[in-house]
Amino acid sequence: MSFLDKAKDLIGQNVDKVEAAIDKAGDVIDEKTEGKFSGVVDKAQEAAKNFAHNAGDSDAPSA
Hints:
This protein is mostly helical.
């Protein structure tokens, strides 16, 4: 099992914690940039959350 496979498994087992961290990171970025990039940050957060949800799936393509 490769490092990436282990990371995906851990993410898949802790989706709620990963999502909370993604939200917190986005909030910090929005605060530091005074919301100038909130649209971009929101898209990145959504992509990261989608990855987290799919991380435990064996059908998901590997990197």
